UniProtKB/TrEMBL annotation:
<dbReference type="InterPro" id="IPR004485">
    <property type="entry name" value="Cobalamin_biosynth_CobD/CbiB"/>
</dbReference>
<keyword id="KW-0472">Membrane</keyword>
<comment type="similarity">
    <text>Belongs to the CobD/CbiB family.</text>
</comment>
<feature type="transmembrane region" description="Helical">
    <location>
        <begin position="289"/>
        <end position="306"/>
    </location>
</feature>
<comment type="pathway">
    <text>Cofactor biosynthesis; adenosylcobalamin biosynthesis.</text>
</comment>
<keyword id="KW-1133">Transmembrane helix</keyword>
<dbReference type="Pfam" id="PF03186">
    <property type="entry name" value="CobD_Cbib"/>
</dbReference>
<protein>
    <recommendedName>
        <fullName>Cobalamin biosynthesis protein CobD</fullName>
    </recommendedName>
</protein>
<keyword id="KW-0169">Cobalamin biosynthesis</keyword>
<comment type="function">
    <text>Converts cobyric acid to cobinamide by the addition of aminopropanol on the F carboxylic group.</text>
</comment>
<keyword id="KW-0812">Transmembrane</keyword>
<feature type="transmembrane region" description="Helical">
    <location>
        <begin position="149"/>
        <end position="171"/>
    </location>
</feature>
<feature type="transmembrane region" description="Helical">
    <location>
        <begin position="49"/>
        <end position="67"/>
    </location>
</feature>
<keyword id="KW-1003">Cell membrane</keyword>
Amino acid sequence: MTTALAMLAAILLDAWLGEPRRAHPLVGFGLFAGRVEARLYRDRRMAGLLAWSLAVLPLVILSWLAARMLGSVAGWLAYAFDAVVLYFAVGLRSLGEHAVPVARALHDGDLVRARTAVGRMVSRDTPLLDETQVAAAATESVLENGNDAVFGALFWFVLCGAPGAVLYRLANTLDAMWGYRTARYERFGWAAARLDDALNYVPARLTATTYALLGNATRAWRCWQTQAPAWDSPNAGPVMAAGAGAIDVQLGGAAPYAGVWESRPLLGEGLPADADSIARALRLVRRGVALWLVLACLVALSWQVASHA
């Protein structure tokens, strides 16, 4: 029951406070990881694995020790620690804070403002995007980050408590820093990318299933099965294909990166992306979180009843 209550408390804290504007732990971790990279960088896979291990594992162990120590003092301290750690690991409110300005700008017909807003969400060349492409970029980001910023952290918290949430979030952060197929990170970032893929494998498929259950299930399942295999990411493909199918929107297609238009597979089916598709994606993620919280509470209650039977 404490796991379910900690999940609920963390989501409520996120809804109330949002991401910390100052001194966010992940910002500090990013700075620390940058120093680790500066000292250990070599154009080799083992160097990247060593850097990843030294950046992540001590903090995971520290969170485990803290949870154990607080739990030995008082149960409520361990519960509070779990809730706060998970709060720092999820970013549900942040999804809306980034996506809503894009939708509002599109509603207002202000393409320049919409491009600027979506530039805070994606890495593509936003000045080259038209209205449909801006809306598609924001919708894709919401669906993908529903897994990366919310459901993935919840999954690993349920499985391993606060240390699991810490492991997942730090691994996700290092993938964003090092997991690029560039000359510098092709080998050094290999471990960060592969470990993030491994940690996201199950959560991504649970996220895709959640999207399907809460939207157009038949279309979501079909898009997942037929379109996701063509996507270059083994986890983003199922999440975005199922999400796009669930909300009846067409995503994917060509997108500009570093001045070059890259051809990407189509995702989903239905109408072209617009401001409303961004709103539907946000609602889908929020309803998914509500479903996970209800299920967690039901499982916890069932466990308590069974243990006292």
